[in-house]
Amino acid sequence: MMNIPVLDPKGPIALAEMHVMVITVVLCAIVVIPVFFLLFYFAWRYRAGSPHASALHLPDWDHDNRAAEFSWWLVPTIIIVVLAIIAWQSTHALDPYKPLPGDVPAITVDVVALDWKWLFIYPAEGIASVNKVEFPAGTPVHFYLTADAPMNSFWIPALAGQIMVMPGMTTQLNVMADNPGTYNGMSANISGEGFSGMSFTAESVSQDDFDAWVASAKSGSTPLDRSSYAALSAPSSYLPVAYYGTIDNDLFDSILIKYMATSSSVGGMDMGMHMP
Amino acid sequence: MTFTHFIFGNLSFSALPENAIAWGGALTVIFGAVIVLALITFFNAWTWLWREWLTSLDPKRIGVMYILVSVVMFVRGLFDVGLMRVQQATSVGDAHGILTATHFQEIFSAHGSIMIFFVAMGFMFGIVNLVLPLQIGARDVAFPFLNSASFWLFCAGAALINLSLIVGDFSTAGWLSYPPLSELAYSPTSGVDYWIWSLQIAGIGSLLSGVNFLATIVKMRAKGMSYMKMPMFAWTVFGAMTLVVFAFPVLTVTLALLSLDRTLGMHFFTAAGGGNMMMYVNLIWAWGHPEVYILILPAFGIFSEVVSTFSGKKLAGYASMVYAIWAIVFLSWLVWLHHFFTMGAGADVNAFFGIMTAVIAIPTGVKIFNWLFTMYRGRIRFTSPMLWFMGFVVLFTLGGVAGVVLSEPVADYQLHNSLFLVAHFHTMIVSGVLFGYFAGVTYWFPKVTGFHLNERWGIRAFWLWLVGFILAFGPLYILGFMGATRRLDHYDPSMGWQGLFIVAAVGAFLIMLGFLCQIIQLVVSIRDRKLNPDTTGDPWYGRTLEWSMRSPAPEYNFAVLPEVTERDEFWVMKQAGTAHAAAPIYEDIAVPRNSGAGILIGAFAVVIGFGIIWHIWWLMIVGLIGVAACIIVRTFDEDTERVISASEVARIETMKTI
Amino acid sequence: MTQYKPEEIAADSKSVFGFFTYLMTDLVLFAALFATYAVLHSGVFGGPTSEEIFNAPFALLETVILLASSFSCGLSLLAARRGNSRGVLASLAITFVLGAVFVVLELSEFARLAASGVGPGVSAFLSSYFTLVGTHGLHIIIGLVWMTALGISIYARGLTRGNMRKLALLSLFWHFLDIIWIFIFTIVYLSGIIL
Question: How far apart are CA C61 and CA A88, in angstroms?
């Protein structure tokens, strides 16, 4: 049983992204199928020895067929215009920074990419977890991401496309899972020796199960403070899931500040403080 | 600083290889070099080698040397493939394969760097050296000494990247070594520095070659050969070299800035200090995207020559093809951001670059249609170059579809950095660039050597490459959809990926067999050279000027410089019966004297690079002075040509070939 | 004035074209450095900004010196056209001296900054400032080395065809560097101080 998350999406973002892939392939087929046909047809029909092939060393005659040339500039152009419209529309609709439409309020999760694990901080719920992110099905999740590590990329293929995660700045990703399920997540940008051990689990559950999960995490005795964070951020890989029962609300911002100068601003990236 | 540290910099015994496989690499380089040196000595060939090859300024010699170096580097690149495929097929669950994570990361970084810079670029410059002057009716390139220096700088880069196998390590940050992973904080060893300097030095060679070939096309075409009468291969070189001169300075700057961060503690791309890692990504891809068109355009040119010759027809839509080249050249500057849609530039920016990326598919598609319509009503001979072309059309079109998918930003959000992406760019580079260069080498081989490549082994190679490629990369497209990201040295069995990785490994093995067939082809062809000579100089009944003299082409190319009145001048002359006219009046011909300054510059460049990498500053200074001295001494040399007398020309023209 | 053969003129045309193409690659190189400077200009990481460290009168002095050196370089070409090799050497010497003074001034400015703890390793802004201006200075130094070698060649061999060609290329190089400096003066110093 093959697990092909990109083609078997479990959330609206990944579903819409898959639709764009399919439409693109279908549009390209308009060009590709004639190309394949002509290649093999011409190769066969005009092979040396065939009665249709031209005579040996025939003097050149002007074959430049203006109509054919016009059509093979025009048809691809039309296809590209259609693709351009799709690109404009879908890129705006599926902007990772854009909150999902709908009335259900989103859950906020702060994500910190470390060497080589993922720290998930739930500012509203007051808990944190390592290598596991859980949320209610049918509820939008708004991720705010930064890194205390080199450049990474946050990817849960069953739910949405990825977003890069960099130190000294925050990026965002909005996703939702339609139904309960368990999904694989990973870093999609090489970040050092333990990079392959950075996979994590994303799980969507019922609202009751989510509340129970939060409660269970809260009951843990480990706090996420400066010293436990320092221990966590030491290089390690292939970590099992772990939980923190209480969190330091300023931790995420302090990780950001560490890399920033107060007077610097870079490009269009969100360099400022994270708003919970 | 202690005296030892002054002399040896950061070098120490810990720089030697750390495990068995790494020692295997080091010993291969060492013994390979020793064996080559021993063979040359055994055959007493040092003088011959120095005089006929190493100091030659003849682009036909330089071209052969480029290709030989590329073949050697290809062996290393393919070996990397074997190691990677075995690792990814076996490193599942409790097993961790044959390589440590770090070693695996060095290997894929080296694989990409070698294939792009030392195989593809080397092949390309090799073929251009061999063919361009002949095609435009010139005797040489514009600046013969610069040509030699460029080649030896290329070799210097190759030497450094091979030295990294023996002493030190290599970058683990991928073939483009993004910061901050490639900064000192996360990559404290010599690896990234080896990456920087082998690419930097080779890159300067490439830049100078770009200037050289541009000047050759602009200033040295035969009399009467207006631009629209040039062969299509020359046009594609024109486009590619234009891209080189605009793109390579950006690479020079980017590598230099990363080097300044690492060596002098600056903060261009560091995570802290105000640095901006996104600037690196923009700069490196502002070079990187044009680079892939630099590689593919000459391959397109080769296909134009091959398809028209083996269809017995002129190229369809010549003007259209020329416009398509310049559309590609122009557009290649407007797409670079598609390499990092996921970096979060916002919808407007992403959509713009996505649209421009799709637009660049139009001129490429136009070219494919023109090649097909060249076949239309032709008389097609299925020689191995034509087979490479057909394999190219099939695979490149499919890879192009993958590219159009990736050009949609939202699709790329899913597939960026996945194995789908890896499959896409390998499809373009292998079926486009490599198949094209293979076809070109087969096509022009008789002109360079005077005999044919063995066709049977060539056809075997083609089928192994084709089937091997499909098996090696077909699974990777699927793996991308299965959520497999690139560069993983280990994964969980529950992902269900292992079967596909095993198929991919089989495919890679078939490709290596294909390459082996090509080596056998070369050996067999040399052995049988007297049985397959090119006696006429025009073995394929070609259309362009390079077929108008005997094979191998003499040092001066044309005894009498041609005057051109038509496109495909040689074909026209043959139809009119004037192609092999009566013996013309010969004149003295000036050709460049040999020069050892080129190889010296290359050697000193290695010294510079090695010195900087290991912080051996006195060595770096020695290298810099050496390069400067070579250049200055050369500029004082006024006696740079020698004359081939008219009678000697007559003798060469009338003597029997092989 | 000597008469030159067609192939010599063709060789000159080829060399000038090739060198001009190389200068355009150098222009792209500086463009990338300017772009980096523009992006990283605000990356001061809490350290000094451009207004705090740039000295307008000093930069103006450097500009005037370099412009004057371009003028004397032009004089050398005029002397060459008249076949006056002593005039060529004299104006080249003046150009050399002016160029050398420029380099010394620039190095002293760098040293002053570094000594007061404002070196290229302090922030991204300073890295890009030192590198952009320093790359230009490195090109000037290479030009001075070239000038010396060419001066020696003209002294020893006179105004041969080859030397005339090299002089033309050198002056192209020198004027190009002057133009780059105008950009540096404007984008780095003037706007750094005024804006």
Answer: 52
Q: Does C83 touch chain A (CB under 8 A)?
A: no
Give this complex's ipTM: 0.96
Residue bearing tokens 């091959």: B306
CATH class of the domain at B45-595+640-654:
mainly alpha
Q: What is the identity of the amino acid at C123?
A: S
**Beta strands A246-247 and A181-187: pairing type?**
unpaired
Report the domain count for chain A.
2
CATH of the domain at A139: 2.60.40.420
Hunting for tokens 């390592």 — which residue is that?
A: A130
Q: What is the mean pLDDT of chain C?
A: 94
Exposed (0-12), middle (13-18) or buried (19+): which is C35, by Cβ within 10 Å?
middle
Q: Which chains touch B (3 or more CB pairs under 8 A)?
A: A, C
Mutate: best of C39, C41, C42, partner A, most A CBs <10 A: C42
Residues B275, C40: C-beta atoms closer than 8 Å? yes
Q: Is B411 on the interface with A (CB under 8 A)?
A: yes
Of the candidates C16, A16, C18, A48, the residue with the CA atom closest to the CA atom of residue B375:
A48
Beta carbons of A168 and B272 less than 8 Å apart? yes
CB neighbours (10 Å) of residue B55? 18
Q: Are C181 and C66 in contact (CB under 8 A)?
A: yes
Which residues from A are below 8 Å from B339, CB to CB? Answer: none
**Identity of the amino acid at B625:** I
Residue found by looking up tokens 């992406």 in the block? B421
pTM, entire model? 0.96
Find chain C residues with C-beta within 8 A of A267's C-beta: 39
Residue A187 pairs in a beta bridge with A154
Question: Does residue B92 sit in helix, strand or coil?
Answer: strand
Integer-rounded Cα Rg, in Å, for chain C is 19
pLDDT band of residue A1 (cuts 50, 70, 90) is low
Examine the domain organization and report whether A89 and A111 are in the same domain. no
Q: What is the mean pLDDT of residues C144-149?
A: 98
Of A220, A244, A228, A11, nearest in space to A132 by CA? A244
| Nearest Cα to Cα of residue B127 among B227, B236, B48 | B236
Q: C46 and A266: CB-CB below 8 Å?
A: no
CB C72 within 8 A of CB B293: no
**Cα B337–B128–B532 angle (5° rounding)?**
135
Angle at Cα B112 formed by Cα B600 and Cα B204, nearest 5°?
A: 30
Q: Is C121 on the interface with B (CB under 8 A)?
A: yes
Q: At what angle do helices B384-407 and B277-311 cross, to 10 degrees?
A: 150
- pLDDT tens-digit readout, A187-245: 999 999 999 999 999 999 999 999 999 999 999 889 999 999 999 999 999 999 999 99
Is residue B211 within 8 angstroms of chain C, CB to CB?
yes
B257 contacts C17? CB cut-off 8 A: no
Q: What are the φ/ψ torsions at residue C192 (nearest 5 degrees)?
A: -65, -30
- Same-domain pairing of A142 and A234: yes
Q: Report the CATH number that the domain containing residue A14 is assigned in CATH.
A: 1.10.287
Q: Is A94 helix (H, G, I), strand (E, B) or coil?
A: coil
Pure H helices in B332-383: 347-359, 361-375
Instruction: Please give the structure tokens belonging to residue A67.
Output: 């109509």
Looking only at Cα atoms, what is the longest distance across chain A? 90
Q: Tell me the residue range of the domain where A44 lies.
A: 7-55+67-93
Q: Which chains touch C (3 or more CB pairs under 8 A)?
A: A, B
Establish if A19 touches chain B: CB-CB under 8 angstroms.
no
A134 lies in the same domain as A247: yes
Per-residue pLDDT tens digits for B176-194: 999 999 999 999 999 999 9
Nearest-angstrom CA–CA distance, B450 and B551? 5
Considering the domain architecture, whether residues A122 and A163 belong to the same structural domain is answered as: yes
Judge if A111 and A192 occupy the same domain. Answer: yes
Closest by CA position to B630, among listed B601, B587, B589: B601
